[in-house]
């Protein structure tokens, strides 16, 4: 009768109980390992904070200093641009001051030359003066165009 008291259902319950004990032990072991991993991760994060926070602070200071130096460079480039603009204005003023008299002298010389040649050829005073004025105007215009082509004239 002892054999009849143990049935297949009891065997199934026994197998289920053993399975659940094995699963419980396995899950418990996994939780234990997971707890150790979280402990190591926490220690790693604390160490990283200890190491990285001073570095981040130094980088912040360096960035502030670089920003200050860039502000100085910006001021220097602004000053250089202002200086170049001043030099350009001065060169233009000198160029204009020199160009106009040279243009007038060249026109005068061309006018006198052509006027004298016309007077010698035709013996007409009014015609010679008119030829001189026209030659002077032409020479002044030619000189102005030459200066414009070379980039030196303003007109």
Count of helical stretches: 2
Supply Rg.
51 Å
**What's the β-strand tally?**
0
What are the secondary-structure elements, in order, as H or E?
HH
Q: Mean pLDDT, rounded to whole units?
A: 85
Unreliable stretches covering 5 or more consecutive residues: none
- Give helix % range: over 70%
The biggest sheet, with number of strands, parallel, antiparallel or mixed sense and barrel status, is: none
Query: How much strand?
Result: under 5%
Principal-axis shape equals rod-shaped
Distance between the termini: 132 Å
Question: By helix and strand content, what is the structural category?
Answer: mainly alpha
Explain what this protein looks like in three dimensions:
It is a single chain. The protein is mainly α. It has helices spanning 8-122, 125-150. The chain is built from 2 helices and no strands. The protein is rod-shaped and about 160 Å long.
Topology of helices and strands:
Elements: H1 8-122, H2 125-150
In a nutshell, what does this entry contain?
This protein is an all-alpha fold and 155 residues long. The protein has helices spanning 8-122, 125-150. Helix 1 runs antiparallel to helix 2.
